[in-house]
Amino acid sequence: MPLNVKIINRSGNPLPHYATAGAAGMDLRAHLQEPIELGPLERALVPTGIFIELPQGYEAQVRPRSGLAIRQGITCLNSPGTIDSDYRGEINAILINLSAEPQTIHNGDRIAQLVVQAVEQVQWQEEEILSPTERAAGGFGSTGKK
Q1: CATH number of the domain enclosing 63
Q2: 16 lies in a domain?
Q3: Could you tell me which of 51, 49, 54, 79 has the C-alpha nearest to residue 64?
Q4: Total structural domains in the chain?
Q5: What is the pLDDT of residues 65-82, one digit of tens each?
Q6: Is 128 inside a domain boundary?
Q7: Cβ contact 87:53 at 8 Å
Q8: Mean pLDDT by 10 residues, the chain (146 residues)
Q9: Which of 18, 60, 62, 108 would disulfide-bridge 83, Cβ 3.0–4.6 Å?
């Protein structure tokens, strides 16, 4: 059963929606008065005109769009960007141009994906020793190449 989430759309663009039955993310679109040109390695905070009210126990993640990344070299910084259930401000995407050429973002362009997920909050239990595992403290490539 789908989760009901309150949304305000001040952009004039379509609401974020799932493009296919198996999609995990919904496209977010730029809400701009005028285009933004991003030079190589330049970044910008791009508004969407979307505001949401997530239930407690959920988060939304702003993630890059693979097509935008491969075709234009534009991706999201701070990825995934976390939107907490108690945030009520506008959803924005921090975009960066990793290509060697300037790229232009126009009003209505699909700029990022929004994924909504359940999250758990933890309560820390302080200990002096953690249970052993085969991996132990090995990290960052410690399992080797396969």
Answers
A1: 2.70.40.10
A2: no
A3: 79
A4: 1
A5: 999 999 999 999 999 999
A6: no
A7: no
A8: 95 97 97 98 98 98 96 96 98 98 98 97 95 82 68
A9: 60
